[in-house]
Amino acid sequence: xxxxxxxxxxHGSLVAIITPFDASGAIxxxxxxxxxxxxxxxGTRGLVVAGTTGESSTLSMDxxxxxxxxxxxxxxxxxxxxxxxxxxxxxxxxxxxxxAHKAGAHSLLSVVPYYNKPVQEGLYRHFxxxxxxxxxxxxxxxxxxxxxxxxxxxxxxxxxxxxxIKGIKDASGDMVRALQLATALPADFVRYSGDxxxxxxxxxxGAHGIISVTANVAPxxxxxxxxxxxxxxxxxxxxxxxxxxxxxxxxxxxxxxIPVKYLASLMGLCQNxxxxxxxxxxxxxxxxLDQVFAKSALVADAAQAFAGEQSAxxx
Length: 315
Prior knowledge:
This protein is of the alpha/beta class. The chain has helices at 29-42, 61-75, 90-103, 120-132, 144-147, 153-159, 175-184, 199-204, 219-230, 238-251, 258-266, 283-295, 297-314; strands spanning 12-16, 46-49, 80-84, 107-111, 138-142, 165-170, 190-193, 209-212.
């Protein structure tokens, strides 16, 4: 179990947890609880609930609130819960932040407003208003591939001065930017990799952890990678780093979370259900993921661990 305070931003592996749906398209609450229990036992340091991987853009406001409430309640202090509260409307982002605070979340993750392409001053005001709305630590989310607009380094420096803005999830995969952030931001400003493919490199440059898609299907391995790099054992763990890189490549062959939900269904973690406009993995991706399921030792070990826990729970 983690030894740090549950109220502080965790270092290591945080899973951008999938939202399991049932055959009718409703949230499968029992499946979600099984996933939370598995992550706790696997050593995952935090749950990022209702993020992009959790298909937050397809959730109603009521579903979003219930997802946060149930996740916090079931986690029951065993693991840090970071709530996805991003929106392209500042008023909605503030509402989501207050909702997450009321639910008992430990921190907030908020993406750059998408589609409306705000200028840097607009970004600054958006996040300051959201950070002012609750006492919770707010983590900024930089993912220009989905939002088009991104933070400038100078805007990040301004935002880092706010007492409630405590970190950033950088999904750029750009190591030059990673170095810029490492040098431009305060040492205690928590930097998370938001890109599984370049996570090892970013961790090697001093990032404090990763908010990971791959951790949905290999939670213990992703945390082991984080720990190895933090302890200076990257050279000894290169086989693990390579295996995780190959697995992550397969998980980003199509828009996230299409591939990870397909693989999770093969592993028995949840049903392969997404909400439109997302649809199931295409033939080429499905075939590749079938091969991963058949051949990856990481996936086999994780699936076996999950199945073993479910059997033990039944007994």
